[in-house]
Amino acid sequence: MQQKKVHIMTFGCQMNVSDSEKITALLRTIDYEPVASIGEADMVIVNTCSVRAKAEERIYGILLTMKGELKNNPDLLIGVGGCVAQQEGERLLKKIPHLGFVFGTHNLHLLPQIVRQAETGKRTCETAFIDDGSRFDLSPDYDSGLAITRSITIMQGCDNFCSYCIVPYVRGREVSRQKSDILEEIQKVSAGGVREVTLLGQNVNSYGTKSGDGSDFARLIRDVAKIPGIERIRFMTSHPKDLSAPLVECYSDVEKLCSHIHLPVQSGSDRILALMNRGYTRSDYIGKIEKLKLIRRDLLVTSDIIVGFPGETEEDFQDSLSLMTTVGYSDTYSFVYSPRPETKAAKMPDNASKGEKSERLKRLFALQKNLTKSVHDSYVGKRVEVLVEGESKKTGQVYGRTSGNRTVNFSGSSSLIGTLQRPLIIKNLQNSLLGELE
Ligand code: SAH
Ligand code: SF4
Ligand code: F3S
What are phi and psi of 269, to 5 degrees? Predict the structure, then answer.
């Protein structure tokens, strides 16, 4: 069989990045080699995100521009996967005549067959939910080499149904992966040079509670910490309502667990949190952060905040700003609320104008800039441990992250990659820190 070439475009969260790796590995089994540009490709796969309308619109834009690519290469096969594929299914094939095939978030394993059919001109759409966890058995693409840090999927899906969120509809119900499989994969990547793992799932705190072998998330962290070669453990994303006492306890005695937690709050207003169906109040949230910070003094916290949820008043928004200051986030990932199909919030009355919402977002960004500045300033003059991940864009420098997940660049050679170093932080560069080793 002649080698063909595939170009994979990945949008959205880490889960999609991880899925794209599995897609690469699966396509190798039918003789497709990954390439970095569309120009070289026989096939393009667009792995999509539909968390906000803009993300979805972008996908349509990209698919339209591919008409141009087809002029240069009329045989180019185009496939769409991921969350927009799951959401739209057959409609995508109808709307976009030059599309070859569509596969949903639970159908990666069918890709070799789907592609073979598409090669013969048969347009296929597979989006059935398969909830037996077999999709975890897909091997990631180890052939492209391993980085120092790696995400390891431990569960998929979400049962929380926050009122604004499309994820439960496009990713399906929560399913946890068997612990023995997770540990085996981490042992394997550790032997291949990985030093930091991020345990990945839409809702990692509920790992093992609804499926798997009954082991909970805290137990999993403790077992991962025993794997030789793994120096650091992170996780993404945890839900504040499920942040359990055993998990908090991990921060006191699992040294490899990094001093960072991404704990999305979404809003600082109790009224909005209730409308969002988040299952906690502002004071529950602050109480949990305080507990964590008592146990880990250097803990840095990041968050997601939605601006302009239906019915959000200026006062509600002020509550989000004041919560940000109370917690002192090192970073927040914020977007204006976007109505999504099927979600409850999409039917809620919404009074604030687009202009008001984007003006609120600007104010939030300005506050976050100051909060990040003060976190970074507090590093200056101190030595901090950095796991070196690679060479910086600037020659003669390497980069890595602190346990608190802040990026540091400092002079050094590639021989440092994969080691823990303690540079002195000499400058706050806004988005990163500058250090020196001697
Ligand atoms: N499971 C994770 C994140 C899921 S989506 C969690 O619970 O935190 C990532 C982020 O996208 C969310 O945290 C939220 O801030 C944002 N988001 C989700 N739906 C959105 C919508 N309809 N409009 C704007 N932002 C949204
Ligand atoms: Fe979406 Fe909420 Fe589930 Fe996160 S917890 S994926 S925001 S429904
Ligand atoms: Fe987007 Fe799907 Fe992830 S909607 S954020 S790619 S789970």
Answer: -105, 125
Q: Is the confidence at residue 211, as pLDDT, over 70?
A: no
Classify the phi-psi angles of 67: left when phi > 0, otherwise alpha if psi is within -120 to 50, otherwise beta. alpha
pLDDT in tens, 323-381: 999 999 999 999 999 999 999 999 999 989 999 999 999 999 999 999 999 999 999 99
DSSP-derived pairing of the beta strands 232-236 and 149-153? unpaired
CA distance 102 to 83: 11
Residue 131 pLDDT greater than 80, yes or no: no
Pocket test for ligand 3, best of 51, 127, 333, 335 (most atoms within 8 A of CB): 51
Ligand 3: distance of its center to the CA of 347 in Å?
A: 21
> What are the backbone angles phi and psi of residue 203, rounded to the nearest 5°?
-155, 65
DSSP per-residue string spanning 371-396: HHHHHHHHHTTSB--EEEEEE-SSTT
**Integer Cα distance of 328 and 174 in angstroms:** 31
Quick one: pLDDT at residue 135? 75
pLDDT tens digits, 376-435: 999 999 999 999 999 999 989 999 999 999 999 999 999 999 999 999 999 999 999 999
260-262 and 300-307 as β-strands: parallel, antiparallel, unpaired?
parallel
Ligand 2 lined by 83 (C-beta under 6 Å): no
Dist. CA 115 → ligand 2 center (Å): 32
DSSP H stretches of helix in 227-281: 245-253, 270-275
pTM of the model: 0.95
Q: How confident is the model at residue 139 (pLDDT cuts 50, 70, 90)?
A: confident
CB-based contact 193:146 (threshold 8 Å): yes
CA 205 to CA 241: how far, in whole Å? 9
Ligand 2 in reach of 435 Cβ (< 6 A): no
Residue 347 makes CB contacts below 8 A (sequence gap 6+) with: none
